[in-house]
Write a structure and sequence with these properties.
Length: about 70
């Protein structure tokens, strides 16, 4: 299986810090979720920080991932 190479949707930087489900751009100082990059056009992708700002602006709490069996 070929691993997909990600790049920053803001500046195009290919030198990213890769995590399991996301990556950071050292140039923009933003974090992006890989699933967004796989499913959305570049112009539609929001950084994690931008998503949290939207939730905060409309007064919602983002869903938190847990490992519990609730």
């Amino acid at each position: 299986m070929v691993e997909k190479k990600y790049h920053c949707p803001r500046c195009g930087n290919k030198d990213i810090v890769d995590y399991t489900e996301s990556f950071d751009c050292p140039s923009c100082k933003l974090e992006f979720e890989k699933k967004d990059c796989d499913e959305l056009e570049e112009s539609q992708i929001l950084a994690v920080e931008e998503k949290l700002g939207v939730f905060d602006a409309i007064g919602l709490e983002p869903k938190k991932k847990t490992n519990s069996l609730d």
